[in-house]
């Protein structure tokens, strides 16, 4: 590949003025994704949906590059730092981060990584990007090795919170966040274990990270849906639900609604966000499953009837899903946690009111922050709920996730040989009477 000097003269831009296909669609899309998250504070998934109609191949490759940048941002910046005399504009820094990620983490051949990142920046910065990335190609791997990457790639406030909650395991958690998560599928009951999948003890089918879901026969047949093994636990822990009236609060995109409906429950799925309700309905249709879908604020919803069981998968900081959503550490702020914890407490009270006497509630969050898990479970007694501890036989292979109180606390560093799992908190209660 040619260096910047051999390129034709004229204005440089990653995207042609005509608005047509950019010169390097994959890198150009990766730059758009990184910029959306880091400069505009938009969710990576939202940014992916907003990409111009790039080919599917470009989207997947761009996602992979952007995810690598977001996962290792602190380390990449530390490698770039000594090579920069002054702070470049954000667009240029992000192009450098992409180049460094390709060189150091994604094994892109140096000439391709350097030339394509030079292409991404305005002409006056081409020389800088070329020179810096050539040095990263030459020296970056050695620098990277010397760094405390686990710490650099974890925002300080998360590191301290996890250190307080989990002690030295904070390092293993941070290490787990470096790798993309495997693809986990929940299966309709009665579906044969799909070929090529590792069947996990709790019934989830697991494929290596990067597996294309559309190519899995059970998914194509509408008998399976993507759901992390930990995310599949809360609905399972509601127990036998066939023929029961179950409210699924905060339901979209519907992974847990699908589990409950597939298990034979009469489900009312409550979700506030109209756009996400669309996704929930699409998913149920694809899976040929039925549920009543209600657009409402679960904190104020009053259906005038009580339920045998309620599943509350409350909105949270999502710090348990960083492996799948590497944008989370760059979007969340410490102040989000108490705000969300307040909302969770309100939702638990509302959920308790929906239960018939003797009915059961499962509360779950995909967060590693104790304020959004253990603290909520402790406070739930104030809503008149009695504990209904989870038993070890309900968590095959996951004894280490069971707390002395009978709650479930999963973390990304558990099950390291099988590829880990998302961080979730789950607690079960019964309404006395
Ligand atoms: C963790 S996600 C739920 C994931 C879902 N249970 C699943 O398994 O696919 C939380 C959801 O709660 C919704 N939500 C947030 N606040 C809500 C509220 N007050 N009432 C109803 N839904 C709410 C969000 O729009 C989001 O879709």
Automatic annotation (TrEMBL):
| Signal sequence annotation | none
Coiled-coil positions are: none
Q: Where is the composition biased (Low complexity)?
A: 1-23
One GO MF term: methyltransferase activity
Q: Does the keyword Transferase apply?
A: yes
GO terms, biological process: methylation
Q: Where does S-adenosyl-L-methionine bind?
A: 250-256, 271, 297, 313
Pfam families found in the cross-reference section: Methyltr_RsmB-F, NusB
Q: Which residues form the SAM-dependent MTase RsmB/NOP-type domain?
A: 158-432
Specify the domain of life of the species encoding this protein: Bacteria
Residue span of region Disordered? 1-26
What Gene3D superfamilies would the database entry show? NusB-like, Vaccinia Virus protein VP39
Family under the similarity heading: Belongs to the class I-like SAM-binding methyltransferase superfamily. RsmB/NOP family.
Q: What is this protein called?
A: Methyltransferase domain-containing protein
Provenance organism: Teichococcus vastitatis
């Amino acid at each position: 590949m040619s260096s910047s000097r051999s390129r034709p003269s004229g204005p440089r831009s990653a995207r042609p003025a005509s608005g047509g296909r950019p010169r390097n669609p994959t890198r150009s899309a990766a730059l758009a994704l990184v910029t959306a998250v880091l400069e505009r504070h938009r969710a990576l998934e939202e940014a992916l949906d907003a990409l111009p109609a790039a080919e599917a191949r470009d989207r997947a490759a761009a996602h992979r590059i952007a995810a690598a940048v977001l996962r290792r941002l602190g380390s990449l910046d530390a490698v770039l730092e000594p090579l920069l005399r002054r702070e470049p504009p954000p667009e240029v820094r992000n192009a450098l981060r992409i180049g460094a990620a390709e060189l150091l983490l994604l094994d892109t051949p140096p000439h391709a990584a350097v030339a394509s990142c030079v292409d991404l920046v305005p002409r006056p910065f081409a020389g800088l990007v070329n020179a810096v990335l050539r040095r990263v190609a030459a020296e970056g791997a050695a620098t990277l090795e010397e760094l405390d990457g686990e710490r650099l790639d974890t925002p300080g406030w998360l590191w301290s919170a996890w250190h307080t909650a989990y002690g030295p395991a904070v390092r293993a958690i941070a290490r787990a966040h470096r790798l993309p998560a495997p693809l986990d599928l929940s299966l309709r009951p009665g579906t044969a274990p799909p070929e090529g999948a590792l069947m996990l003890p709790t019934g989830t089918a697991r494929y290596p990270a990067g597996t294309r879901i559309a190519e899995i026969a059970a998914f194509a047949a509408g008998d399976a849906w993507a759901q992390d093994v930990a995310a599949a636990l809360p609905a399972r822990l509601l127990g036998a639900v066939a023929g029961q009236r179950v409210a699924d609060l905060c339901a979209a995109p519907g992974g847990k609604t699908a589990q409950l409906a597939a298990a034979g429950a009469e489900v009312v799925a409550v979700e506030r966000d109209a756009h996400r309700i669309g996704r929930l309905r699409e998913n149920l249709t694809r899976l040929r499953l039925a549920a009543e879908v209600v657009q409402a604020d679960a904190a104020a919803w009053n259906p005038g009837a009580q339920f045998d069981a309620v599943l509350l998968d409350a909105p949270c900081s999502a710090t348990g899903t960083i492996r799948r959503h590497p944008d989370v550490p760059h979007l969340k702020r410490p102040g989000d946690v108490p705000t969300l914890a307040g909302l969770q407490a309100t939702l638990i009270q509302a959920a308790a009111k929906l239960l018939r006497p003797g009915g059961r509630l499962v509360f779950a969050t995909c967060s590693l922050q104790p304020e959004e898990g253990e603290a909520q479970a402790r406070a739930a007694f104030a809503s008149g709920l009695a504990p209904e501890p989870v038993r070890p036989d309900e968590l095959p292979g996951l004894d280490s996730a069971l707390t002395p109180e009978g709650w479930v606390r999963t973390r990304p560093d558990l099950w390291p040989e099988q590829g880990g799992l998302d961080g979730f908190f789950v607690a079960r209660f019964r309404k006395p009477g």
